[in-house]
Amino acid sequence: MNRLLLLFGALALSLGARAQLTIDITTSGGRQIPIAVTPMAGDAAQPQAVGEIIAADLGRTGLFRPVNTAGVSPLPTEPSEVNFPDWAARSAEALVIGKIEPVSEGRVEVRFRLFDVQKQAQLASYSYVVAPAQLRATAHRIADVIYERLTGDKGVFSTKICYVVKNGRRWELQVADADGFNAQSVLASQEPIMSPAWSPDGSRLAYVSFDQKKPIVVVQNLAQGTTRVVASFRGNNSAPAWSPDSRYLAVALSKDGLTQIYRIPANGGDAERLTESSGIDTQPAFSPDGQSISFTSDRGGSPQIYRMAASGGPAQRLTFEGTYNVGPRYSPDGKTIAFVQREGGRFHIASLELATGQVQVLTDGTLDDSPTFAPNGKMVLYEAQVGGRGQLAAVSGDGRVRQRLTSGAGDVQDPAWGPMPTN
Amino acid sequence: MKKLALYLVVAAVAAACASKEAKQEPTGVTDRSTGVANPTVGSNVTTNPTNPNMAIARNPLTDPSNALYKRSVYFDYDSNAVKDEYRGLVQAHSRYLADKRDARIRIEGNCDERGSREYNLALGQRRAESVKKIMTVLGVPDARVETVSYGEEKPVAPGHDEAAWAQNRRADIKYAGE
Predict the structure, then answer these.
(1) Residue A217's closest CA among A235, A239, A190, A247?
(2) Based on C-alpha coordinates, what's the Rg of chain A?
(3) I need a surface site. Which of A120, A222, B38, B39 has the fewest CB within 10 A?
(4) A184 to chain B: which residues are within 8 Å by CB?
(5) Shared domain check, A408 and A326
(6) What is the ipTM for the molecules in this complex?
(7) What residue spans define the domains of chain B?
(8) What CATH number does the domain containing A174 carry?
(9) How far is CA A41 from the centre of its chain?
(10) In CATH, which superfamily holds the domain spanning B70-178?
């Protein structure tokens, strides 16, 4: 077992001083790719060290092992300057070099190259001309290129996450980079905020607000900051889930008695009832192809996960082990569902492979909740209770790599991982 | 086991970045009334100008000596059954609602922290619905009782043990305008 501890001194942004964010990574088994990420020439003159951000991104996945670059002098910035035998002696299999140079109008050019050390071959080379303020985002884009070139999967370092922070009687909905940096408060309230859900293009968040002293569903445009109440029917309005075409929200409403699942236009409007059970039906999730909806129902006596057509109708039960399987979320390829399972009074995140019905328990906390897949399907972000407080944690789809994101203050709840950036 | 610690401290953000962040100010939820009427609950407070010594009738809902002062029904774990000890409380409010035809209530269900947030929200609403069902049987019109839930989101007891959980498995009766 390898343990990698990354400590980030968080930044003072528009929110004021933020608490320190610690990411603790545990991996067991599996091979890690030894990679050397050299400090980029010109990095020191910039506000953010690009090489360090790239190394941290890759390290957090648990799939890479950073190789020490101390004592390498001069640092290579061109292919001709790379001493491959020296890097091989440091047991690096991959090497990243680069440089940052000022160009016109205050902008800088970031150039990086990725090498296969054994083959002494260049695997990738890109250059970006950006404003210095974009260097952090550029580092994430470079990490995405490296990750994809070396693992074959898309990187998610340029994506966003959102979550709810509860401090006493104050709730905030925050949006942050996938590494926890650049946290922005997009909503603050003296009443609870629940169940944020990203629109498929990442431009809007649907969530549950209690500002009217009862749960209603609100959609907020992130760029404009505008909000629209889309469901405030009699009783509870909750559990919003976007259809993949962004036209509809599946929601849980109790306007006709106990909670059932309905479909409403994403801009609000009439509710069309999709389930007709005598129990509770809630937590809908559209399959990525838009054809079906999985949800929680206790129609059979205990809460279990069911699936029906997206237009409603008969439902098929998907979970059979145990007496509490709730809160399904699809993987981006639609082949797997992550959900919350109770066993012996403890609540864990588990995954269900739809083709085989095979269930794998992924976490071992006491009160894990709200799983949400990374848009490349490789990690599941969720809420864990540690020391009586909600914190964010992530686990790889095979359960092998675990991360815990510890924030200094408050309860961190209800995470949702945003989509891939559109450009 | 190998242990490796990396300490990455990132320097200050460029001014240009900070100004970009400033655009995304926190915004509140648009306030739209749900259309629940706000009848005056305290209308039974009366005075008699001809006899200033006569006691002023107190609002039974805020009078600690009145049965209507009690508003909370507590539940067992994983249960939405209203226990016998709370029948009297529910009956008292049902009678009051039968008398006060302009009174409307919300029953707010709550859960302890165990379990999934959204499922708990629905369980809290079912607890509220169980209380409403008794009221309906006693003749309270459906339109005057809304059942909602805070799920596990607003615990009155902050602890993480059975003593706290028992306080949080609850349905509260709230009159419109309170």
Answers:
(1) A239
(2) 23
(3) B38
(4) 21, 24
(5) yes
(6) 0.91
(7) 70-178
(8) 2.120.10.30
(9) 31
(10) OmpA-like domain (3.30.1330.60)
pLDDT digits (tens, 9 = 90+) for A41-71: 888 777 778 999 999 999 889 899 999 998 8
B106, B119, B123, B172, best to mutate vs chain A, most A CBs in 10 Å: B119
pLDDT tens for A182-233 read: 999 999 999 999 999 999 999 999 999 999 999 999 999 999 999 999 999 9
Q: Is A6–B149 a contact, with Cβ atoms under 8 angstroms apart?
A: no
Whether residue A187 lies within 8 A of chain B, CB to CB, comes out as yes
Q: Is residue A65 part of a domain?
A: yes
Whether the ω angle into residue A79 lies within 30 degrees of 0, i.e. cis, is: no
Residue pLDDT, tens place only, A83-116: 999 999 999 999 999 999 999 889 999 999 999 9
A196, A179 in Cβ contact below 8 A? no
User: Quick one: CA torsion of A264, A268, A269, A271, rounded to 10 degrees?
Assistant: 30
Contacts of A23 in chain B (CB under 8 A): none
Q: Among A182, A236, A369, select the one facing B148 at the smallest CB separation.
A: A236
pTM (2 d.p.) = 0.86
pLDDT over 70 (residue A77): yes
- Residue A17 in this model has a pLDDT that exceeds 60: no
B18 by DSSP, 3-state: which?
helix
CB contact at 8 A, A262 and A251: yes
> A392: helix, coil or strand?
strand
Name chain B contacts of A13, Cβ cutoff 8 Å: 13, 18, 21
Which pLDDT does position B27 carry in this prediction?
40
Inter-chain residue contact B8 with A9, CB threshold 8 Å = yes
Furthest CA-CA distance within chain A:
73
Tell whether A284 is within 8 A of chain B (Cβ): no
Does the CB of A185 have a partner CB in chain B at under 8 Å? Answer: yes
